[in-house]
Amino acid sequence: MKQRRRIYEGKAKILYEGPEPGMLVQFFKDDATAFNAKKHDVIEGKGVLNNRISEYIFTNLSQMGIPTHFVKRLNMREQLIREVEIIPVEVVVRNIAAGTISQRLGIEEGTVLPRSIIEFYYKNDALNDPIVSEEHVTAFGWANAQEIDDMMAMAIRVNDFLSGMFKGIGIELVDFKIEFGRLIENDTMRVVLADEISPDSCRLWDSSTKEKMDKDRFRRDLGGLVEAYTEVARRLGILNENEAPRPSGPTLVK
Predict the structure, then answer these.
(1) In tens digits, what is the pLDDT along the chain, a chain of 254 residues?
(2) How many CB atoms lie within 10 A of CB 21?
(3) Are residues 150 and 116 in the same domain?
(4) Residue 155 is part of a domain; what is its CATH number?
(5) In a domain, 89, yes or no
(6) Among 24, 139, 141, 126, which Cα is nearest to 88's?
């Protein structure tokens, strides 16, 4: 770790120089943040779980033909990824009302939306990641019309896959946030899925109890965050069947 050059550090991950040009190493931290890092804590084991869950999801999405920056998992906390130019727009897909959409529009949390809704947010912590329209995105040059079409098409496919995957293990996909980047290969550029998909970036509710199994456990001071993430991993088949989930440093299948 000390030998590698640090490229970027975010709230939950660190990017290091990769083993060859065009590659980076993505390190998952145990930091938990909310409200643009106004709330912060370190929760042992969270980064390990997010690394494995995100690896599982990105691998399956790649097999479906969705282009991603993910190459492979290196160890319990690190992934090898392709270097991309991150598009400064977060794409949020909502299936059930929760969080900010309930606050903005006065929709009772838990209301199933008439159809899945896609929203765009400008990635800017200083401005608290404001919601923006497609007009803002194209007018300010954050992405062009074709890139927006590509991101929306991939977001719909990701939503279809995640909804079915989680439904099959007794979990409702309430909403999720994804990011995209521009990947240049052989003098051509394409938009690919980047960042991570984990309980940090999804709202997940147990289908029977509606118990929250995501970062809302931290946002709302519910406790049990690692236990909830561990249960998601166990249902996905990532944990050994005979392993007892532990709140600190759970052992995962390699």
Answers:
(1) 457 899 999 999 999 999 999 999 999 999 999 887 789 999 999 999 999 999 999 999 999 999 999 999 999 999 999 999 999 999 999 999 999 999 999 999 999 999 999 999 999 999 999 999 999 999 999 999 999 999 999 999 999 999 999 999 999 999 999 999 999 988 899 999 999 999 999 999 999 999 999 999 999 999 999 999 999 999 999 976 554 444 443 333 33
(2) 7
(3) yes
(4) 3.30.470.20
(5) yes
(6) 141
Looking at the structure, do residues 71 and 11 belong to the same domain, yes or no? yes
Please list, in sequence order, all residues whose beta carbon lies within 8 angstroms of the beta carbon of residue 159, skipping any fewer than 6 positions away. 93, 95, 116, 173, 176
Instruction: Annotate 151-165 with three-state secondary structure.
Output: HHHHHHHHHHHHHHH
Give residue 70's domain range: 6-84+224-235
| Domain tally, the chain | 2
Q: Does residue 150 fall inside a structural domain?
A: yes
